[in-house]
From TrEMBL, chain A:
Any one GO biological process: vesicle-mediated transport
Its membrane topology: Peripheral membrane protein
CDD domains recorded: AP-3_Mu3B_Cterm, AP3_Mu_N
Family label: Belongs to the adaptor complexes medium subunit family.
Pfam families with a match to the protein in the record: Adap_comp_sub (PF00928), Clat_adaptor_s (PF01217)
UniProt-annotated location(s): Cytoplasmic vesicle membrane; Golgi apparatus
Domain MHD: 226-467
Keyword Aminoacyl-tRNA synthetase attached: no
Name of protein: Adaptor related protein complex 3 subunit mu 2
InterPro entries named among the record's database cross-references: Adaptor_comp_med_subunit, AP2_Mu_C_sf, AP_mu_sigma_su, Clathrin_mu, Clathrin_mu_CS, Longin-like_dom_sf, MHD
UniProtKB/TrEMBL annotation, chain B:
Protein encoded by which gene: AP1B1
Subcellular location: Endomembrane system
Membership in a protein family: Belongs to the adaptor complexes large subunit family.
Protein name stated in the entry: AP complex subunit beta
Pfam families, alphabetized: Adaptin_N, Alpha_adaptinC2, B2-adapt-app_C
UniProt keyword terms in alphabetical order: Acetylation, Membrane, Protein transport, Transport
Length: 468, 948
């Protein structure tokens, strides 16, 4: 007989539920899944026809400060399972988005330091719920300027009305903020004052016109004295650069955000100099996909106001230029309690544009007690508690490269730290889309007036990391 | 002036104050009061006491006030049904309002009030609203039908709302279509058999048209509905795919994933030679990659789904490895999922990059992540043979870091690498041994000991090393003790001269000084082996072992196919079929991928085909328990299994344990195996499992299935004696035996739960898997007091037949899950069909004749019932007790012919002709039934009843 192999020993310890003959998965010898299923997986009951049953808003300190039920009231004790998971996670960001409880599933998103926890009872596409939750957050932000606990509490009735309008029996009813705003007017100081004086309400009593037309995203009868259409092409570079400065991965997440204030029912077309760049795109529903497929032209009747026309993704490595480099020399000496720290930031492929808003952050190892550094420009802070080093560099002058030099005080007597700090970079480049995307022209049909048109380009760092 | 002021009054008299304000004459004051009430509601305060006062505010022209009151009503109507009825008139009136917004609001709110009395009044307004001229009202009404159906399904059917809803699929407004589809699929889901969404090419076409025009949420409903359609050929599949592909560019990730589901499913029907197939594959990659740039929560769900997709069709993302590289500020749940997918995508082409990344991760801060990264390196080595060497050297580098947990993980995975590539990397053992002292986790210690034992002949001081562990033998965990025992025995067999003392020592430690049964038993086995026949011992212990398989972590293919049909759902996040977490009647119809219609059939997705390694492991796959039971039943007639022919009882015990333990570990290692793989060559150890439970070996089986043992009760159907369904050793000490009975129309499952463990058991619960006749517990499993060790409790669990239905093979197979405070256990059993014979199963004579003629002859099945000495009348009365009714008796040429009928709970009639010859103990039974597949089981029931 073979010595009991460790592999199967592990099996014995982790007997997760498996129903013989039902073809449940074999337990992987090394299950990387984070989902530690409760031994008794939640059996969803058969009575609910509601997709999202309830919503709880929970702040960072674990208080439920708002609850909304679309059907019967679910006891807030269901959130105890969430709190348990919250406790287990080291940081708020690490709370798993799907949690199973004996009778419900909890799907959550964490934004603006608030957990939005949806309770569901039936098999629902989780992305559906999570997308919806994000939409709720965006709507709050749109309505109140910021999405915070205070703001939500200050506007609780509007929040409640909005939530009721967004979802009916689990079916999203109105999630376009254009339409919502016609149903429930967003609070403004003026309106609050007027409402109090005149006793009028912030609930619209007319059916939003856009709701059911072929262009549900646009209301009719829009009028402006100044007709303008602005488009911002914004690209974010996500990259991982290795020790030696070569690129491990780099990709561009681009969006075209629009602010369109045009009278009537304008029909716009936007064409690019190099549309071939865009092979992985997601469109606003207003874009006519057929036209894009055949002619590579964006043709659409725009929503009124601000909206995201398009987001795209460029991952072909040769197309992603890396505009900055970081030279680093971080040295933890083994025996001495002093380490050396030196980084220099410089421009690489910037197409002649200036790099601004440069910000360097780095999470130093626990063993670093303090740092005494001198920057050639900008300001820096090292927080000895969180071990976070932040250096606000500002603009990069190619003639005089910014650098940060000095020494680190290390905990005496311990061996050198195991992990090397990763350098996180923020920067901005105006008037440049790093992928090279260029708008060719913007035309308007269907209306007679001449609109004012503007196009702006910007490149930013997304998750831009340099390993040391 | 913000709403926060509503929160400030938390004094005692609050409710009282609010009451006064609600009844104020001033409109403004009323509205403010209602707002305060709502604000209290949002923070979970109970303001239901204000119900009548709030409802009084409902009749108002002020839309905001009306809405607020409606909000309140929805929350509290259920708790105050009598009060809620006061609101009905206003609702009905509002449904006639000229403003469509108010009409819709009223019908929507009414649907949310789950009070029966209100529901009755809802029907007329709802009917009008479904045909309203305004599409906004129609779309709201469509959803309302789903709500009403949830409250009272019968009412919805009686009122014909379902047909109206179906008509709405052809509505001119895409929003109405989307909501109608959503409502219909919602209803269909709770009634899987209803066939509500009758999908045909015409309706599919309508849906596809609506898909382009309706909102993102509607698109999700439509796509999910499309995914349930089965195209008639590959051409239709392709044309649907073509029309769905644009959805991949949608900004809403749920739309994208639903579209991916449709494509992944219908792709199955396309021939791989088709150009379009390749195009489609290429189109799938970018949207999946894009999902990974979304918010982390979306990423997580996307990654869980991508995990399935790369297992099914690795070619889609094989060039996209880099997008799965981990960023240091990803949340941990995203990191771990990415790591898992990286390993799945690892191949010879990209292994260098992957390894460099993994090595980088191994220096991160998060301990869990680092550990998994180190293990991942090991998995890469096992998966990609060419990389093994590089993986080993990477692991050695990591060991050099001397970071404690990294070293330990590395040693655990190196052990697995040795098991996959024996005699290749032994040169590293020296380095491993250097770290011996730093190992403090049992798993790492056990791994190290295993390595030393396995390669004892090449390690000069193997005896010293092992001896050093032996000093603290009793403080080690069981895992380490077992490993140490085995390793020293291996060492002894390899170097017998120097290590005799050591082996004596460990054997006595394991057998005499330990009370762990596993350890003792294994110790005794080795001891006897060594003392009886050292040569044989060498052959047994040092025999060459099959290599471990590379893909043990893959999801089993049939499950994978099912999960692909559930892309984007919770099932895909948990990697479990919905049947695992959707209860009772709301059971989901089992979905499967469509069969390929093209000619290039044979080896679909070669990646999923079992590899050589898996083939070698196949004996480890046991048949599904249903088959095992079937085999057990068959064995009843065969020769009894005899115990090992050994005299010494202790030896016999050891041997039994060996068998049992072996089976046990085999069972555990692959209970989820597909039933298709079962049935072969595993019958012998099967019966040993229950037999080992204590019954004398020879007769154990006989007893278990001894059909003469039980006495049928007179008051009801024949009841078979109880048999052991779940042996204690498979259920951590819980033994379950039972039988089924039927008495005056009610079926029950009579169980005996026995606690053979050392701890108290409590919190029992039971659940059935879907089965052929919808058997389901009619009440929860009630065990009143916790079950103390060695205690038994008898329970009669009432059953009904309204559970969800899925055809099982064999037909009367029932899979049961039982839970207690320790764990969840599963077993399956066969129920005798006669518990399903209903009391009103007697057919009219004329009817019988007509039906007999009407059923085609090919549905007739003939069986022999042997060795039965009863006469016709005795037979007739005996069968009647089990609801098999004799309709007529005739004597033809000296033979008695009995004509009988019976009816099953699901309404299937079975007609029988039983021929009895006075001289012959064999009866001939002819069965006719419109569902001929039940005949065999009816025969089994006859046989069982007549012989008892």
């Amino acid at each position: 007989m073979e010595a009991v192999p460790c592999r199967s020993v592990r099996h014995h310890q982790r007997a997760s539920p498996r129903l013989i003959g039902l073809c449940w998965p074999r337990v992987a010898p090394l299950e990387l899944s984070l989902l530690k299923l409760a031994p008794w997986v939640a059996f969803l009951p058969c009575d609910g026809a509601v997709m999202i049953h309830s919503l709880f808003l929970i702040n960072a300190s674990g208080d439920i400060f708002l609850e909304k039920h679309w059907k019967s009231v679910v006891s807030r004790s269901v959130c105890d399972y969430f709190f348990e998971a919250q406790e287990r996670a080291s940081e708020a960001e690490n709370v798993p988005p799907v949690i199973s409880t004996p009778h419900h599933y909890l799907l959550s998103v964490y934004r603006h330091k608030i957990f939005f926890v949806a309770v569901i009872q039936t098999e629902v596409p989780p992305l559906f719920v999570i997308e919806f939750l994000h939409r709720v957050v965006d709507t709050f932000q749109d309505y109140f300027g910021v999405c915070s606990e205070v703001m939500i509490k200050d506007n609780v009735v509007v929040v409640y009305e909005v939530l009721e309008e967004m979802l009916d029996n689990g079916f999203p009813l109105a999630t376009e903020s254009n339409i919502l705003k016609e149903l429930i007017k967003p609070p403004t100081i003026l309106r609050t004052v007027v409402n109090t004086i005149t006793g009028s309400t912030n609930v619209g009593d007319q059916l939003p016109t856009g709701q059911l037309s072929v262009v549900p995203w646009r209301r009719t009868g829009v009028k402006y004295t100044n007709n303008e259409a602005y488009f911002d092409v914004i690209e974010e570079i996500d990259a991982i650069i290795d020790k030696s400065g070569s690129t491990i991965t780099a990709e561009i997440q681009g969006v075209i955000d629009a602010c369109v204030k045009l009278t009537g029912m304008p029909d716009l077309t936007l064409s690019f100099m190099n549309p071939r760049l865009l092979d992985d795109v997601s469109f606003h529903p207003c874009v006519r996909f057929k036209r894009w497929e055949s002619e590579r032209i964006l043709s659409f009747i725009p929503p009124d106001g601000n909206f995201r026309l398009l987001s795209y993704h460029v991952s072909a490595q040769n197309l992603v230029a890396i505009p900055v480099y970081v030279k680093h020399n971080i040295n933890f000496r083994d025996s001495s309690s002093l380490g050396r720290f030196e980084i220099t930031v410089g421009p690489k492929q910037t197409m002649g544009k200036t790099i601004e808003g440069v910000m360097v952050t780095s999470q130093m190892p626990k063993g670093v007690l303090n740092m005494s550094l001198t920057p050639s420009q900008g300001t820096h802070i090292f927080d000895p508690v969180t071990k976070l080093l932040t250096w606000d560099v500002g603009k990069i002058n190619p003639q005089k490269l910014p650098s940060l030099k000095g020494s680190m005080n290390l905990q005496a007597g311990t061996s050198k730290p195991d992990e090397n700090p990763t350098i996180n970079l923020q920067f901005k480049i105006q008037q440049l889309a790093i992928s090279g995307l260029k708008v060719n022209r913007l035309d308007m049909y269907g209306e007679k007036y001449k609109p004012f048109k503007g196009i702006k380009y910007m490149t930013k760092a997304g998750k831009f990391q340099v390993r040391t | 002036m913000t709403d926060s002021k509503y929160f400030t009054t938390t004094k005692k008299g609050e409710i009282f104050e609010l009451k006064a304000e609600l009844n104020s004459d001033k409109k403004e004051k009323k509205k403010e009061a209602v707002k305060k009430v709502i604000a209290s509601m949002t923070v979970g305060k109970d303001v239901s006491a204000l119900f009548p006062d709030v409802v009084n505010c409902m009749q108002t022209d002020n839309l905001e006030l009306k809405k607020l009151v409606y909000l309140y009503l929805m929350n509290y109507a259920k708790s105050q049904p009598d009060m809620a009825i006061m609101a009905v008139n206003t609702f009905v009136k509002d449904c006639e309002d000229p403003n469509p917004l108010i009409r819709a609001l009223a019908v929507r709110t009414m649907g949310c009030i789950r009070v029966d009395k209100i529901t009755e009044y809802l029907c007329e307004p709802l009917r009008k609203c479904l045909k309203d001229e305004d599409p906004y009202v129609r779309k709201t009404a469509a959803v309302c039908v789903a709500k009403l159906h949830d409250i009272n399904a019968q009412l919805v059917e009686d009122q014909g709302f379902l047909d109206t809803l179906k008509d709405l699929i052809s509505d001119s407004n895409p929003m109405v279509v989307a909501n109608a589809v959503a409502a219909l699929s919602e209803i269909a889901e709770s009634h899987p058999s209803s066939n509500l969404l009758d999908l045909n090419p015409q309706s599919i076409n309508k849906l596809l048209t609506a898909l382009n025009e309706c909102t993102e949420w509607g698109q999700i409903f439509i796509l999910d509905c499309l995914a349930n359609y089965m195209p008639k050929d590959d051409r239709e599949a392709q044309s649907i795919c073509e029309r769905v592909t644009p959805r991949l560019s949608h900004a809403n990730s749920a739309v994208v994933l639903s579209a991916v589901k449709v494509l992944m499913k219908f792709m199955e029907m396309l021939s791989k030679d088709l150009d379009y197939y390749g195009t489609l594959l290429k189109k799938l990659a970018p949207p999946l990659v894009t999902l990974l740039s979304a918010e982390p929560e979306l990423q997580y769900v996307a990654l869980r789904n991508i995990n399935l997709i790369v297992q099914k069709r690795p070619e889609i993302l094989k060039h996209e490895m880099k997008v799965f590289f981990v960023k240091y500020n990803d949340p941990i749940y995203v990191k771990l999922e990415k790591l898992d997918i990286m390993i799945r995508l690892a191949s010879q082409a990209n292994i260098a990059q992957v390894l460099a990344e993994l090595k980088e991760y191994a220096t991160e801060v998060d301990v869990d992540f680092v550990r998994k990264a180190v293990r991942a390196i090991g998995r890469c080595a096992i998966k990609v043979e060419q990389s093994a060497e590089r993986c080993v050297s990477t692991l050695l580098d990591l060991i050099q870091t001397k970071v404690n947990y990294v070293v330990q993980e590395a040693i655990v995975v190196i052990k697995d690498i040795f098991r996959k590539y024996p005699n290749k990397y032994e040169s590293v053992i020296a380095t491993l041994c250097e770290n011996l002292d730093s190992l403090d986790e049992p798993e790492a210690r056990a791994a190290m000991i295993w390595i030393v034992g396995e390669y004892a002949e090449r390690i000069d001081n193997a005896d010293e090393l092992l001896e050093s562990f032996l000093e603290g033998f009793h403080d080690e965990s069981t895992q380490v003790q077992l490993q140490l025992l085995t390793a020293i025995v291996k060492l002894f067999l390899k170097k017998p001269t120097e290590t005799q003392e050591l082996v004596q020592q460990v054997l006595s430690l394991a057998t005499q000084d330990s009370d762990n049964p596993d350890l003792r038993d294994r110790g005794y086995i080795y001891w006897r082996l060594l003392s009886t026949d050292p040569v044989a011992a060498k052959e047994v212990v040092l025999a060459e072992k099959p290599l471990i398989s590379e893909e043990t972590d893959l999801i089993e293919p049939t499950l994978l196919d099912e999960l692909i049909c559930y892309i984007g759902t919770l099932a895909s996040v948990y990697h479990k079929p919905p049947s695992a977490f959707v209860e009772g009647s709301r059971g989901v119809v089992h979905k499967s991928l469509p069969p390929r219609t093209g000619s290039s059939e044979s080896a679909e997705s070669p990646e999923a085909a079992p590899s050589a390694g898996q083939a070698a492991e196949q004996p480890a796959v046991i048949p599904a328990q249903g088959d095992l039971l079937g085999d057990l039943l068959n064995l009843d007639l065969g020769p009894p299994v005899s115990g090992p022919p050994l005299a010494a009882s202790s030896v016999q015990m050891g041997a039994v344990d060996l068998l049992g333990g072996g089976l046990d570990s085999l069972l555990r290692s692959d209970v989820g195996g597909s039933p298709a793989m079962g049935g072969s060559g595993f019958t012998a150890p099967g019966p040993a499992a229950p037999a080992a439970m204590g019954a004398p070996l020879g007769s154990g089986l006989g007893d278990l299935f001894d059909l003469t043992g039980g006495v049928g009760t007179l008051s009801g159907s024949y009841v078979a004696p109880k048999t052991v369904w779940l042996p204690a050793m498979k259920a951590k000490g819980l033994e379950i035996s039972g039988t089924f009975s039927r008495q005056v129309g009610s079926i029950s499952m009579d169980l005996v739960l026995t606690n053979k463990a050392l701890q108290v058991m409590s919190d029992f619960a039971i659940q059935f898997n879907r089965n052929s006749f919808g058997l389901a517990p009619a009440a929860p499993l009630q065990v009143h007091a916790p079950l103390a060790p060695n205690q038994s409790v008898e329970i009669s669990l009432p059953l009904n037949t309204v559970g969800s239905v899925m055809k099982m093979d064999p037909l009367n197979n029932l899979q049961v899950a039982v839970k207690n405070n320790i764990d969840v256990f599963y077993f399956s059993t066969l129920y005798p069909l006669h518990i399903l014979f209903v009391e009103d199963g007697k057919m009219e004579r004329q009817m019988f004749l007509a039906t007999w003629k009407d059923i085609p002859n090919e549905n007739e099945a003939q069986f022999q019932i042997k060795d039965c000495s009863l006469n016709a009348d005795a037979v007739s009365s005996k069968l009647q007790g089990s609801n098999i009714f004799t309709i007529a008796k005739r004597n033809v040429e000296g033979q008695d012919m009995l004509y009988q009928s019976l009816k099953l709970t699901n309404g299937i009639w079975v007609l029988a002709e039983l021929r009895i010859q006075p001289s012959n103990p064999s009866f001939t039974l002819s069965l006719k039934c419109r569902a001929p597949e039940v005949s065999q089981y009816v025969y089994q029931a006859y046989d069982a009843i007549l012989k008892n």
